[in-house]
Amino acid sequence: MASLREEFDDIVDNRRVSTVFQPVVDLRTTRVIGYEALTRGPRGSSFEQPMKLFAHAYRVGRSAELDWVCRATAMQAALLAGMPPEVTLFVNAEPASIGVDCPDDLLDTVMLGARRLSVVVELTERNLTHDPAGVLHAAFVARANGIGIAIDDVGADPASLAMMPLVRPDVIKLDLSLIQNRPDLVVARTVNGVLAEVERTGATVLAEGIESPRHAAMALAMGATLGQGWRYGRPAPLPDGWSSSTGAGGLTISHDPPSSRTPFEVVTAKRATRPATRQLLASMSRHLEYRAADPAEPSVLVACFQHARRFGPALVRRYTSLAAASVMVATFGVGMPDEPAEGVRGTALRADDPLAQDWVVVVVGPHFGAALVARQPPSDERGEDTPYDYAVTYDRDLVIAAAQSLVRRIEA
């Protein structure tokens, strides 16, 4: 009798997974606009249920390969069924796998699927809070390849709302608990955060777990225009033919490339600078940093210190506390270690990197956002006392653009 490891290896090595598809509909017309691909292991095996399959994959270090197998299998089924490009294919993905090369035997299928199908990759809310840098990297890679981004299960962890503006998802999928349970303050905070993101970017809201007219009405009230759940269809093979009434329901996919500018360049292109001493900038920076630790609005804090030597013991203590209270804290500088303080993600810069000239503190929360950017003017006699040119902005779009120009540099 084969061991669990042998049974699992056989499934992955021989690509023995299958896919069923659950329809995604326009909530007002119930017209099918897409399908979510759901993986199943071999029937009757120890790994028929996807949770068991992926849990074992994590234990044995094959989760990225399994993830590619599942996506390729879903794309192959959609291609064989003749899924038209007007229909959106939602596929689940682990952030780590997107940064790993696709296995050679799956590459043709994946490339053909990316060309012929309208694909949206779903990244879970759990990944947003447990592996924020991985999610951001995965989103940048997917978007660079013309693939849409969805954040799945939104509502299970309110802290994920701070990451959402940085990912800029095309689709926000509300967790079924929001739709099926009695509304409370946690639900209200999530819905308000989602609606703020929708207003800013035009993202589409999709509600999961709709099983009744009451659930559908609640989804509409929360801003959803799309829905899925047993009310509209259970997971099953794709249809044999495609009706003319099946197709896109106004789903907008963003393909904006990330900016290569530094936060200073992003902000000062729209805001005038003024001179300031290092002492004033340090005080203003602390004020913004404390906003990142506000328990009422968990936030993301990203900062550039020019050089790691500026990240002294006092900053190490402060940033350790900030990391414990924030969704993500990341720092940049020449010689910056991978973890300059407990819970803080560090990124080292080259000495000739334009960012190495900048003093930056950016805070992004579900509703609050602020950026301080500063740079010493070129001078042969520049020293510690040389004033900086600086700007502060609370313009949300500018703040998020400044933050994105930093977080895209973080390696997953």
Automatic annotation (TrEMBL):
GO MF, any single term: cyclic-guanylate-specific phosphodiesterase activity
Natural source organism: Asanoa ishikariensis
Ranges of residues in domain EAL: 1-249
Pfam family, one: DICT
Top-level division of the source organism's lineage: Bacteria
InterPro entries linked to this entry: Cyclic-di-GMP_PDE-like, DICT_dom, EAL_dom, EAL_sf
SUPFAM superfamilies hit by this protein: EAL domain-like
Region of interest (Disordered), ranges: 243-262
Protein name from the UniProt record: EAL domain, c-di-GMP-specific phosphodiesterase class I (Or its enzymatically inactive variant)
